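Progress report, Aim 2. The chain analyzed during this reporting quarter is listed below.
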Amino acid sequence: MKRAATCLFAALALGGLPDFAQSASPDAAQPAVTLGAVPGDGLTTTRGYADSALGQVHWQLVQPERPARASGPVFVLLHQVPWFHIYYTRAQAELAARGQRSIAIDLPGYGLSSRPTNPPKIADYADAVAATLRDRRITRAIIVGHHTGATVGADLARRHPRTARCLVLHGVPLYTPEQAAARLASPHWDQTYRDDAAHLTERWTYLSGRVVGSTESLHWSVLSMYLAGSQEWFGHHAVFRYDMSSTLLALRQPVTVLSNPQDLLHFTLARVRELRPDFSYEELDGSSSNMAFDEPARWIDAVTRASSRCAGQ
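Predicted structure tokens for the chain:
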């Protein structure tokens, strides 16, 4: 058992993976995602840090190699937690291939950003994103968020309205009070390292029974949690304590809500539609719980369709 689990750890670290995850049908001929590399020709990638009240915030900017080809506002991509900017690596390459600029931001506590010592509120995350956009001189952006990123993006648009030209939200965390309370009461995931690497296999087994996705997406989901460390729950608890309903009612920018049946928050789609029937809605036929990672071309098709509704904003 120790030998087998140790081999799994090595496979996770090196990118070679066992094939026992529940699989989806990712976009064809995709190269494996590697930290520090964005696949594709004719694009440039810049990375850096911005200062915020929650510490340094890491960002990854991808744009066409020839700046003159870049058109329109910048797409600001906000990840679910405990993922980080790598969730959007392929999506950023897709946007650059279509002549669009994008910036993927690691929320504080995740990826390569600083680790807060105390649990932030959603407003704190949104302010950190706003500080990053000011640092990069990005204004009137298209805000795109998935799960936690959707919550942070909505708060950013409400509290920093000049920053958000419009929003694209995939999987909106609109919980009932009872659902939020139940999630807050759940114990944190035990990240204690074990000699037989069971901490990795248990997380893998848990995720493979809960989400639909490629083996590679499960690989990065496991690594993302352990990269975040023992406080990886900060972001989720901020979401569970947040009044998403009031924020959705307050938004005045154009909003498109995306969902697909495999998304873990697909069950909230009808609830959001009832609250804001004036939003635009699109249900996608994606086969993954992590479409931006597994099916970036189809996902970016939907995001760019939604962004077209920003005209004149």
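The mean pLDDT is 89. Residues 122-135 form the longest helix (14 residues). These observations will guide the mutagenesis work planned for the next reporting period.
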